[in-house]
Amino acid sequence: MNHEAPLLTIGFLTFNLSTVLMLVITAIIVFLIAFFATRNLKLKPTGMQNFMEWVMDFVKGIIQSNMDWKTGGRFHILGITLIMFIAVANLLGLPFSGIVINHELWWKSPTADPTVTLTLAAMVMVLATYYGIKMRGAKHYFGTFFQPMSFMFPLKIVEEFANTLTLGLRLYGNIYAGEILLGLIAGIAGSGFLGFLGGFIPGMAWIGFSIFIGFIQAFIFTMLTMVYLSHKVSEDH
Questions:
Q1: Which of 34, 79, 38, 37 is nearest to 57 (CA)?
Q2: In this structure, is the dihedral angle defined by the CA atoms of residues 40, 46, 48 and 54, taken in order, positive or negative?
Q3: Distance between CA atoms of 157 and 150, rounded to whole angstroms?
Q4: Whole-prediction pTM value?
Q5: 160 alpha-carbon distance from chain centroid
Q6: How far apart are CA 21 and CA 201, in angstroms?
Q7: Which domains does the chain have, with CATH numbers?
Q8: What distance lies between CA 29 and its chain's CA centroid?
Q9: What are 28-39's pLDDT values in tens digits?
Q10: What is the pLDDT of residues 63-99, one digit of tens each?
Q11: What is the spatial distance between Cα 133 and Cα 3, in angstroms, rounded to a whole number?
Q12: Are 169 and 118 spatial neighbours (Cβ–Cβ below 8 Å)?
């Protein structure tokens, strides 16, 4: 199961074509879900519209559990986009996990790549910093790094990096480990009739568990995003 990643090097930049492909597919799926859910809006929602309104209410609840709606309402679209994008990305590798062409792994969840999850985490921290400065002022924002005592400054800097790493690596670790185990079970199931009998039930059980984990991790990432934003922009922080 030693499969290589399809790489493309342009100058000093190297791109994982599998990750790029899966990110594009994820974005297309999320766009189509949002498009069809909002194409024919009705006063009494049904079908996809009902699902989208549930997602909107769910994310609104996440925001309101961390900050008042007057402050947090501006992050509503961000939260909806994050939870849908990450949920789809987490689940994308399950249906056709392990598609290999010429010993290169082409189909996997994009969130099974640490580059993707750490980039998402860094984006969240950059946005939190931007809105912290924009809404509270640069003086107040940078002043929080010296509170409650000035010697806390180095620890606050470490905390910023630690939050970024844990946010990204938590998502990556859960999805990557799940896909590795699913690949091992699939290998056992494909080894023969007895292997199929021994691997089918655990495989189905693990797929069900992976779906649950995929949604939970999307929720946790979105929740922590709102927690970090709240710490930067709320009056009581």
A1: 79
A2: positive
A3: 12
A4: 0.86
A5: 19
A6: 31
A7: 77-234 (1.20.120)
A8: 15
A9: 999 999 998 888
A10: 999 999 998 999 999 999 999 999 999 998 876 655 6
A11: 45
A12: yes
